[in-house]
Amino acid sequence: MIKSKIKPGTYIFPLPVVIVGANIEGKANFMTIAWCSVVENKPPMLSISASKGHYTNIGIRENQSFSINIPSEDLIEATDFVGMKSGKEIDKSKFFQVFYGELKNAPMIKEAAINMECKVMNTIDTGKGHEIFIGQVVQAYAEEEYITNDILDISKIKPLIYATGQKSYWNLGNKIGKAWSIGRNYKKK
Amino acid sequence: MIKSKIKPGTYIFPLPVVIVGANIEGKANFMTIAWCSVVENKPPMLSISASKGHYTNIGIRENQSFSINIPSEDLIEATDFVGMKSGKEIDKSKFFQVFYGELKNAPMIKEAAINMECKVMNTIDTGKGHEIFIGQVVQAYAEEEYITNDILDISKIKPLIYATGQKSYWNLGNKIGKAWSIGRNYKKK
Question: Which of B49, B152, B160 sits opposite A38 (nearest CB)?
Answer without folding.
Answer: B49
